[in-house]
Amino acid sequence: MNTLTIDIRKAEPRDASAIAEVHQQAWRGAYSGIIPHRTLTSMINRRGVDWWANAIRRAATVLVVEIGGTVAGYATIGKNRARELRQQGEIYELYLRPEYQGIGLGSRLFKAAKARLADHGLRGLVVWALEDNHNALAFYAGNGGRDIAEGVEVFEQKALKKVAFVWND
User: Fold this and answer.
1) Long-range contact set of residues 147-152: C-beta below 8 Å, sequence gap at least 24
2) This prediction's pTM
């Protein structure tokens, strides 16, 4: 019998290639048909292995979830960037490879990211998701988030609504 281990840890520079791959797969899966194709491709291509290695080295907090030694997903976290919201922490990104979605890894990574922010003294949490990304909206609502604010992101003159979910722990 084989036992697969699940580990959530701070990313290391050696993870850059795997994170870049997760980013590419997850963003194509989440945003194809929502973000204009040319812009989406450009956004993905900007974040290659070197970009991720630099982000990890620059002390950006990047967490990875590994299953059986394979990086299945990542989260980037830090201080809330939306001054109008009182929550102090923010999950900037949380993505999984498509084949690892729907089995509870995202919830485990979310809880670990939330705990890491709290460990750093950041009270409350905000996460933004595009309104057309129905899977993300369902995920954050299902993890107890309250939809309290809206904003807009513009891609190639296409305005897309985004929704802020908050937790006030």
Assistant:
1) 148/85, 149/82, 149/84, 149/85, 151/82
2) 0.93
What fold does the segment set 6-127 form as a domain? Aminopeptidase (3.40.630)
Give backbone dihedrals phi and psi of 154, rounded to 5 degrees, phi first. -115, 130
Contact 160, 153 (CB under 8 A): yes
Domain positions in the chain: 6-127
Instruction: List pLDDT tens digits, range 29-70.
Output: 999 999 999 999 999 999 999 999 999 998 779 999 999 899
pLDDT in tens, 79-88: 999 989 999 9
Q: How many CB atoms lie within 10 A of CB 40?
A: 19
